[in-house]
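Field: COMPLEX_INPUT
Field: COMPONENT_COUNT = two
Field: RESIDUE_TOTAL = 768
Field: MODE = joint
Values follow.
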Amino acid sequence: MSVTAAQGFSAAGIAAGIKENGNPDLALVVNNGPRRAAAGVFTSNRVKAAPVLWSEQVVKGGEVTAVVLNSGGANACTGPQGFQDTHATAEKAAEVLDGHSAGEIAVASTGLIGLLLPMDKLLPGIEKAAAALSEHGGEKAAIAIKTTDSVHKTAVAGGEGWTVGGMAKGAGMLAPGLATMLVVLTTDADVDAPALDAALRDATRTTFDRVDSDGCMSTNDTVLLLASGASGITPEQKDFAEVVRAVCDDLARQLIGDAEGASKDIRIEVVNAATEDDAVEVGRSIARNNLLKCAIHGEDPNWGRVLSAIGTTKAAFEPDALNVAINDVWVCRDGAVGEDRDLVDMRFREVRITADLAAGTESAVIWANDLTADYVHENSAYSS
Amino acid sequence: MSVTAAQGFSAAGIAAGIKENGNPDLALVVNNGPRRAAAGVFTSNRVKAAPVLWSEQVVKGGEVTAVVLNSGGANACTGPQGFQDTHATAEKAAEVLDGHSAGEIAVASTGLIGLLLPMDKLLPGIEKAAAALSEHGGEKAAIAIKTTDSVHKTAVAGGEGWTVGGMAKGAGMLAPGLATMLVVLTTDADVDAPALDAALRDATRTTFDRVDSDGCMSTNDTVLLLASGASGITPEQKDFAEVVRAVCDDLARQLIGDAEGASKDIRIEVVNAATEDDAVEVGRSIARNNLLKCAIHGEDPNWGRVLSAIGTTKAAFEPDALNVAINDVWVCRDGAVGEDRDLVDMRFREVRITADLAAGTESAVIWANDLTADYVHENSAYSS
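Field: COMPLEX_OUTPUT
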C-alpha cells in the first residue's frame, strides 16, 4: 500500500541503472492534489548531502509536487557538482511532470558517500519512472529505495475517510537526529503545511529519533510528509498527529528489525527519570554501549555494562538507587546484585532492558540493536 | 622493570585463587620511603567501584604506603558489602605491612562487574604477597593485574639519578576519562604530593584520556603515582612532568596495541582546529564511529564515514573546507573527493587518519582501534 494508500498520489519504482547489479534504484512519488502541502525533517548532521540541502529549501516553500528518490549513491560530499546534479534531477522531474517548477520537487538519495551519481542514467530514469506512475505504484517505489535493506518497509493507518501511508528504507547508520533513513509519508487528509509540520516533528521526535542502531548519524536522512487533500476531510489535529505518529512508529520498528547484521532488537525503557531529556540521554548511552551490545548478542544479561553506561551520563540519579531489569527480571537492585541472572531468558529476538533511575516520574523508550560479527562483516565490505 | 625500577619500592604478584584458572591475580606494591607522597586520577564514571571510592579518599591524604591490586573481579556494583570488602583488604595490608594504617593503603580491582570478591582467598593472598615482596617484583606485579590482556605492560624513563617506572593493565573499555585501566607509576624522585598531582593530571590528560578503544568507560579506572624520594633528587617540575608524560604515553600506546580483538591501531590526528577542545571532540567522534571502525578493519579508506562523524560534532568548521588524509593520502579535499583512494595502503597494523578542520591552529591526537568480529566474540562471551 505504501505511499499510494492515500488518495491523490501516484508512484513508481524502476531500475535506472544507477546500481550496477540492475536492481530497482529510482522511485518517484507524485502528489496529484488538489492540495500539495508538505513538511519535512532532515538529518542534524552538519555534513549534509546535496539532496538534503536542496530539499530543505523546497520544503520551506510548503509545497511539494513530487519526490525523486534514488538508491545506489548518496550524493554526499560531492561538492558543487553534486549540488548541480541534484538541481538537474529536480529540473528533469519538473519537466516530465509538466507545468511544475523544480522548486516544488524534493530529492532524496542513499548509498555510498563521496561518489557522483551517474546522471546519464539517472535523468533518463526519471522519464522512465514518470511513464510508470500508477496509483498502485507504492510498493514498487518502496522496493526501489532499498540499499542493504533485506525487505522493503511500508505502513498504513488512518481515520474516518482519510489515510496516512508511508514507505521507509534504512538498515544501518540509524541514530538520533534520524539515521540513514529515507521516509516518505502521504495523506489524503486536507491539512495545511504548518499542521503537517507540527504533526511530523512531534511524531519523529518519539519514533525515528529514538532509534539507535549503531550510533552513526547519516548525511542523508530525510522524512517527508505530503498531503493531497483528496479525501476532502480535515481531521482534528490531535487525531491526525496520532495517526502520523503510529505510522512513523510502525516504520521505525521495521527499521530496527532489519538493521544490518543484527540478531537482537533491544527495547530500552528508562523509567522514573527526573526529566524526559534525562531518560533519553540514559537510553541513548545504553543503546550505544558496544560492550553491552556484544553481551546482548551473546545472550548474556550483563547488567554491569548497563550501569557502567548510565554512569557516563549527566542525568539525575544516585548510583546506589539504580535498578535494572532484563526481560523483566530485576537483575540489579539498589545499584547491586538483584535477582538471579540465570532467570533471564534471552532466546528471543526482542530483548527488553528497563533502567529505573529512581529520580522522578518521566520515561522514554529507545530502540537499539546488538553488535554482531555480521555487522562488522557487512560494514567492512560495504564499499568494496 | 615496572614499578620496581625506581628505588625505594618493592612489589609482588601472586596467585591468590581469585581467578578460577589459577593464574596470578593479586599484586602488591609497597613504597619503602623515605617519602610516601602520592597522587591519583580515577574514572569519571559516576558509577564507581568500591575500590575507586576508597582509593580516592586515601589519595586525598597525599600519602600512600602500598597499593593492593586484584584481577578476577571488579568489586563494582556490589553495594555496602563490596565497600566493606575493600576496607577489609586495606586493613589486612596495613596489618601485614606492620605499623601502617589502612588509610594509607590504596586498593584497585579489575574484572567482572557485579560480583563480590572471594575474601576467603583474597585476604590470605595479601599475606602471601607480602611474604613475596621483592625489589625485583615489578614484573610479577604487572603480570598479576592482567585480565584479557595478552601481554603485561611496563615502561621506564628517567632523568639524571632519578627514575619513573610503571605498569598498566587494560584491553577493552578503554575510553575517555580513562578506561578499564589500572596503572601504577612509581618514582624515586623527591617530589611532594601537589607536584605529583600536577604532573600526573597533565600527563593523563594527553595520554590515557586520549585513548578510545571502544567508547566504553569503566567503573574502575585508577592511575596512581607514588614517590619514595629514595634518590634524594628533586628534579625541575617541567622535567619531571615530561618524564611522567613519556611513561604514560608509552603505556597508553601499549594498551591500544593490545585492545581486545583489534586488528588495527588507529592514530587520529585532528589539525587546524579552532581550539584544542574542538580537536579532541572531533577526534573522539571519529574514534567512536562504528561504521568507520568496521571500514578500517576491512582496509577500506572510507573517508565519507570520517566526514559523517565530524558532522555530528559542535566544533568550528565549514563542511566544504574539510580535508581528510588516510595514511597520508588526501582522499578528501574541500569536503569532496580528493586523491584516488586506491593509493591508500592499509596493510599495516597502524592506520593514520588526519582530519583538517581548516578552522584554526590547534590539534590533538586520539588513538583508537578497529571493530572486528573478534571484538564481538570476546565481549559476547566474557562473563560466560
